[in-house]
Amino acid sequence: MKKIGIVTFFKANNYGVCLQAIATSEFLKRQGYEVDIINYINPYEHRIFKWSYKENDKIIGYVTSFMKNILLGKKRYYNKGFKNVENYYHLTEHCVTKVEQVQDMKYDILIAGSDQIWNPLITGEIDPVFLLQFGKAERRISVASSLGSKEPTETEKNIFKEAFKKFSYISVREQYAKKCLQDLTDKNIKVLMDPTFLFNKNEWIDLLGRKSKAFDIKEKYILTYFISSQKSSYQDRVLEYSKKFNCPVWSIQFTNYTWKVTNRKIMGASIEDFIALFMNAQLILTDSFHGTAFSINLNRNFVPFKHSENPLRIVNLLQNLGIAERLDMPAEKYKAINYDEVNKKLEILREDSKEWLLNAVEFE
Fold it and tell me: What predicted TM-score, i.e. pTM, was given to this entire model?
């Protein structure tokens, strides 16, 4: 049995981070591989787990982050929501934060996982661990890795160019990343779907959704899941949809902040709750890439709001599935989604991603 080691974000207080890590690990495990999530946490990312840190890279951030954690309960609700995540993958024993600490690792295959592991705005700099510049392995593969909306500098491009020489296969999550990186390697860079699409609606329900008490909810509600700092500007649109659907608004959130359009706050929802709440919603309003991805994968009606800080991921996904008109769709122009057409495109892309990944890990 071949052994695979994956480096990716897996511990951040973020549903997308956790669910993409679970998806990649679980998919490969079901193919008969022994799979580890390597317990590596990028040092810049690691700062967010402290009670106080330089939020948004501003000195005042030390104060604002501390106040959110203490007065609004942010840290407590994060701990509540993500406490069971490690039940869904195998994590190596010791947590490490430096490339020197993983240099002696040996795997048949090393994988740089998905999410924005190649975005220095998230990692502080281009992280050599996330470029698999460590250990011993027969093969090195990137699986739907992302730059976010960040364009690499010339210095960063040189780092990618040198690192790619060791890769057997390279894939990214967005067409934008392929455009930025293809000239840096003679290998064809493949654009894959986010790993959460490796599993379909029924598989996610069986894996997570049925384990939530929210799975049997009969009430009608609009669900909001917003992650950007500009979410206060969404309030009027949320209220318009609430009136149109004649439904209360339920909000997944991690602080006690009271939003004037929210009828019910879902504080510290687990990953199981996340799936169940999405599954039962009459409508989902979100500015999150993974909020959009799971709305589509679970075949829910949804409207994505443009995340001005990182819009390309959502735009690319909507375009690929022929539903780009849903971005910022006003309530008066709202229409339900024809998932018969969307699912035809989705299944083609899903199977293409599975085929590429299996070929990359199995090719002799």
Answer: 0.91
